[in-house]
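Summary of Year 1 activities. Much of the first year was spent building the evaluation harness for sequence design. The harness presents a backbone, in tokenized form, and records the residue chosen at every position. We chose the following record to illustrate the format because it has been used consistently in internal testing since the harness was completed.
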């Protein structure tokens, strides 16, 4: 007989982070805990207000329904996960953790044994030029060879100037630059801005325009001098045939998988299948999860045997994150088996 309950959390950013959707100073979510009396599995319900498609107005009710379905073993009464993709991610993780002994090991591998690492990008948040340069300098000092820069929230000319400065100091052979516009460009300026940015040898441009503009996105993917990566474009697409149609019509060069926003690992596996079929590469990123969710995503990514640099370095953003074996060294995520998990 299983018992299930959930617990809210609020993570505090070390300093407010700025995206094209505005500033964030805290991150709210829930932990889902499932126990058989001896072992406890944990999953994280991680959503981002204004980005996730989760129905936050009824989220507590859905959590209660999920816990009741788990405890009564009436899985036919699970909530509609299309309306709560982060809940499906948490459910999958909690049950996997419980099945594997309740030690937060979801996919056993050389990574969880501490013998292998995952290369990740260093994330640079939007802000004034000096602030962004300071972040970049620190990322390079920390050994990152790939940095991801959020663009679209400050003056575009300042952003171009910033990239020019970076490239004067660090050629493309030394530092890979990925850009993320979070949909900030418009039909009127997207082509001009992509042309202006291309001279700085950019690896990829993530979500240059707002999601849902399929005809325009098809044109952008076909003509952009910078390879295009889909992120928000995938959110809210719950059925394989729908995803397949999107990729076949628009033909991006990359897709970016966020399990907590897309509905867990199963749906991400479907996206990978469709991407491979269309000769599209992929990588995964965390979506402001605590170390609980980040840990699960990292273990899943490692099990996929991909050599692509991943976006899994957000755990250090918070002052009150859960203590974990996850560490970052020389631009890679590691699982330090000598460290222990803290209490939720």
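For this record, the design step produced the sequence shown next.
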């Amino acid at each position: 007989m299983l018992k299930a309950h959930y617990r809210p959390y609020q993570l505090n950013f070390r300093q407010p982070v700025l995206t094209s959707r505005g500033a964030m100073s805290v991150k709210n979510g829930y932990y889902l805990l499932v126990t058989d009396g001896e072992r406890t599995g944990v999953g994280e319900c991680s959503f981002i207000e204004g980005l996730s498609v989760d129905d936050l107005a009824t989220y507590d009710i859905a959590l209660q329904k999920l816990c009741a379905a788990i405890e009564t073993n009436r899985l036919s009464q699970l909530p509609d996960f299309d309306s709560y993709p982060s809940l499906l991610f948490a459910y999958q993780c909690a049950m996997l953790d419980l099945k594997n002994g309740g030690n937060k090991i979801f996919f056993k591998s050389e990574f969880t044994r501490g013998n292998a690492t995952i290369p990740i990008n260093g994330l640079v948040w939007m802000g004034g030029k000096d602030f962004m340069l300071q972040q970049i300098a620190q990322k390079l000092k920390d050994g990152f060879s790939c940095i991801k820069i959020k663009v679209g929230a400050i003056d575009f000319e300042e952003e171009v100037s910033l990239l020019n400065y970076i490239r004067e100091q660090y050629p493309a052979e030394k530092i890979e630059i990925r850009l993320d516009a979070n949909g900030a460009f418009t039909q009127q300026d997207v082509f001009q801005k992509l042309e202006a940015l291309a001279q700085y040898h950019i690896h990829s441009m993530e979500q240059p325009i707002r999601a849902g503009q399929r005809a325009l996105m098809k044109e952008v993917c076909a003509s952009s001098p910078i390879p295009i990566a889909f992120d928000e474009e995938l959110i809210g697409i719950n059925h394989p045939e729908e995803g397949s149609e999107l990729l076949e019509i628009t033909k991006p060069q990359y897709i970016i998988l966020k399990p907590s926003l897309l509905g867990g690992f199963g749906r991400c596996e479907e996206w990978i299948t469709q991407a491979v079929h269309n000769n599209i590469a992929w990588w995964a990123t965390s979506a402001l999860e605590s170390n609980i969710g980040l840990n699960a995503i990292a273990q899943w990514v490692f099990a996929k045997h991909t050599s692509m640099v991943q976006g899994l370095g957000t755990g250090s953003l918070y002052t009150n994150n859960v203590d974990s074996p996850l560490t970052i060294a020389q631009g890679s995520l590691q699982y330090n088996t000598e460290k222990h998990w803290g209490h939720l």
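The CA atoms of residues 49 and 182 lie 14 Å apart. Quantitative recovery figures across the full test set are reported in Table 2.
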